[in-house]
From TrEMBL, chain A:
It is found in: Cell envelope. Transmembrane segments: none annotated. The keyword Signal applies. This is Sugar ABC transporter substrate-binding protein. Residues 26-293 form the Periplasmic binding protein domain. SUPFAM superfamilies: Periplasmic binding protein-like I. It comes from Ramlibacter agri. Residues 1-19 form the signal peptide. Pfam families: Peripla_BP_4 (PF13407). The keyword Magnesium does not apply.
From TrEMBL, chain B:
The keyword Membrane applies. One of its GO terms (molecular function) is transmembrane transporter activity. One of its GO terms (cellular component) is plasma membrane. This is ABC transporter permease. Pfam families: BPD_transp_2. It is found in: Cell membrane. Keywords: Cell inner membrane, Cell membrane, Membrane, Transmembrane, Transmembrane helix, Transport. Its main location: membrane. InterPro entries: ABC_transp_permease (IPR001851). The chain crosses the membrane at residues 36-55, 85-107, 114-132, 159-177, 206-227, 247-272, 279-303. It is a multi-pass membrane protein. The lineage of its organism: Bacteria, Pseudomonadati, Pseudomonadota, Betaproteobacteria, Burkholderiales.
Length: 330, 312
């Protein structure tokens, strides 16, 4: 019995060692394990790794903002022999020292979805242009509103996150309002924004935030939301107040639930991003580095499309049916 | 004689190590072990303070947030206010100790349950951290703040100074609890505060000291956290908050007070760290780590309950 166990152990050792020598190991670190966006990203990476003969390790923080958890995952992956690590930084600044250490050991680090601050903290960035994603829904909302004076509510992410700032400011810019540029981490607050609140990208918190904003500014006619769960929460609040018909809700993300909400008229328009593509490109870059030693560099825009079921003149968009073919999540 | 439950955590840790060793040949290396120690040093250090409080039959929910506040105070003062690093560190330690004293005073003077007191101070510390830092991460720290994250060569592996500090503090805490009168008083208060009072133990002073010392230890933990990540992070401490309690419980310290061995908390922290490390090396999602931790916590508390019942 004992010797059998020993043989088994030895075999496992040998098999493990062999597999590690042959396959390039690629690590993927997401913000959380549970957000459908990251689940899809993981799927995309898994598929690409399988197709190209790489081994994928995955890790994540326990919650959005858990930097220490991401640092731990990063260290473990470097130790597991990963030569390329793909990461969606939870905290764009706090993760930098850990990335620096990994890069000093010759590991290629690529940021997916959101950049580090500064962006050259990683070898490359594969991400949606979040500012542009905001601009698209801003332009749409402007035309949809017609000539009426805008009373805007913004349901943002949480303080200090660049993606939150970029989408918010892009939206203002697209709407034709004064807005900070894409590099700014401050949320623009022109007079047309009657209420701004944090939703943490969460439906329940988004609903609460919208309820409070409705108390403050019942005259609202445009709601910008950081993502579709927040938009769904905003809609709940509007419906309870009997205002769901007269208010234009716009969002960013393009998850399947979100696109269906465009179809159902809950969301007027949303900007769709492509996590599967980000992940697949990241894995390909990892394989290329393992095979040829060439690192990826710079920023690659993974694309964004405006999804709306009521096309407006002068606004380029695809309908929800097309969006559903490209969406992620359930 | 140590009860059987005291051995439980060691057995669990050993079993986990053996299992992971069969799964990946990189697991059983000195370098990997050093890495796991570095990864658990923050939780491990917080868990010393948490153990002291739990031994008195209390609990501290504020530990992670107080640690985060200490880290932000240190890094903001040193980087943005131009305070000399040593003084900045001292201020951070003072703030966390102050939080410990406030916790202690509310528990001993107003006789509020520690759960409620620290639930309140947890939120206060979190809010102060966010307000003081404007929710912004502090970068470009002076070397003095990150020195504990540096490593030195020991034999074939690298050891970080923070790990050495944590191990030293565990040793001191172990010695103090075992060999000194105040240490025995902590157990006595946790076993039965009223009986302890009747035998002449200054119960309120013991409790206040325990909370204050815990606060100071959280301050040291914030220095470790800053050193490990290399930044002042306003969102630090949110997972450490419950991880430290988890480590204490996994280490076999009774949530009902009065029973436990401090070194068990280090073992408890290591169990969680080893699972996280081992599963990553295997390429398994870290959700399984959370699953296993949940099961182990329930097992640990169940064993404590059962051994209590058996003893009566």
């Amino acid at each position: 019995m004992r010797s059998a166990l020993l043989v088994l152990t030895a075999t496992a050792f040998a098999a493990g060692a062999l597999a590690q020598q042959q396959q390039p190991v690629i690590g993927l670190i997401t913000k959380t394990e549970t957000n459908p966006f990251f689940v899809k990203m993981k799927e995309g990476a898994q598929q690409a790794a399988q197709a190209k003969g790489g081994k994928l390790l995955t890790g994540a923080g326990k919650a959005d903002g858990d930097n220490a958890g991401q640092v731990t995952a990063l260290e473990n992956m470097v130790n597991a022999g990963a030569k390329t690590i793909l990461i969606t930084p939870s905290d764009s600044k706090a993760i930098l020292p850990a990335i620096q250490k990994a890069r000093a050991k010759g590991v290629q680090v690529i940021a997916l979805d959101s950049p580090t601050d500064p962006a050259d903290g990683t070898d490359a960035l594969f991400a949606t242009d979040n500012y542009q994603a905001g601009v698209l829904i801003g332009e749409y909302a402007k035309v949809a509103l017609g000539g009426k004076p805008a009373k805007i509510v913004t349901l943002d992410l949480f303080p200090g996150h660049p993606v939150g700032a970029q989408r918010h400011n892009g939206f203002l810019k697209g709407f034709g309002l004064a807005a900070p540029d894409a590099k700014s981490n401050d949320l623009g607050r022109p007079a047309e924004v009657v209420c701004a609140a944090d939703s943490y990208g969460d439906q329940a918190k988004g609903q609460t935030a919208m309820e409070n904003c409705l108390q403050k500014s019942p005259e609202v006619n445009v709601v910008y939301t950081i993502n579709e769960p927040a938009a769904a929460g905003a809609y709940q609040a509007l419906k309870k107040a009997g205002k769901e018909k007269g208010v234009i809700v716009v969002s960013v993300d393009g998850g399947c639930a979100g696109v269906r909400n465009v179809q159902a008229g809950v969301i007027a328009a949303t900007s769709q991003q492509y996590p599967l593509k980000m992940a697949a490109m990241g894995v390909e870059a990892g394989i290329a580095y393992a095979n040829g030693g060439k690192k990826a560099s710079g920023y690659t825009d993974t694309g964004v499309a405006l999804i709306a079921d009521k096309p407006l003149p002068g606004i380029q968009s695809i309908d929800a049916k097309q969006g559903l073919a490209l969406c992620w999540g359930k | 004689m140590p009860p059987l439950t005291a051995l439980g955590p060691f057995v669990a840790l050993l079993a986990a190590c053996l299992f992971f060793a069969t799964q990946n040949d990189r697991f059983l290396t000195a370098q990997n072990f050093s890495l796991v120690l570095q990864q658990v040093m923050v939780v491990g250090l917080i868990a010393i303070g948490q153990t002291l409080i739990i031994l008195t039959a209390g609990i501290d929910l504020s530990c992670g947030m107080v640690m985060a506040l200490g880290g932000i105070v240190m890094s903001k003062l040193a980087v943005e206010s131009g305070v000399p690093p040593a003084l900045a560190i001292a201020c951070g330690l003072a703030v966390t100790t102050l939080f410990g004293i406030v916790n202690g005073l509310l528990v001993t003077r107003i006789k509020l349950p520690s759960f409620i007191v620290t639930l309140g101070t947890m939120n206060i510390a979190f809010a102060l951290t966010q307000l003081y830092s404007s929710s912004q991460t502090v970068t470009n720290l002076p070397d003095a703040l990150t020195a504990l994250g540096e490593t030195f060569k020991l034999g074939g592996t690298e050891v970080s100074w923070g790990v050495v500090l944590m191990l030293a503090l565990y040793f001191i805490a172990w010695l103090a609890l075992r060999e000194t009168a105040p240490g025995r008083h902590v157990y006595a208060v946790g076993n039965n505060a009223e009986a302890a009072r009747l035998t002449g133990i200054p119960v309120r002073r013991v409790l206040l000291a325990v909370y204050a010392i815990a606060g100071l230890l959280y301050g040291v933990a914030s220095l470790l956290s800053v050193a490990r990540t290399g930044v002042g992070d306003p969102n630090a401490g949110q997972t450490e908050n419950l991880d430290a309690i988890t480590a204490v419980v996994l280490g076999g310290t009774s949530l009902f007070g009065g029973r436990g061995v401090i070194l068990g908390s280090l073992v408890g922290a290591l169990i969680v760290g080893v699972f996280r490390n081992g599963l990553t090396l295997m390429g398994v999602s870290s959700v399984y780590q959370i699953l296993v931790t949940g099961i182990l916590v329930i097992l640990a508390v169940a064993m404590d309950q059962l051994s209590r019942r058996g003893g009566r």
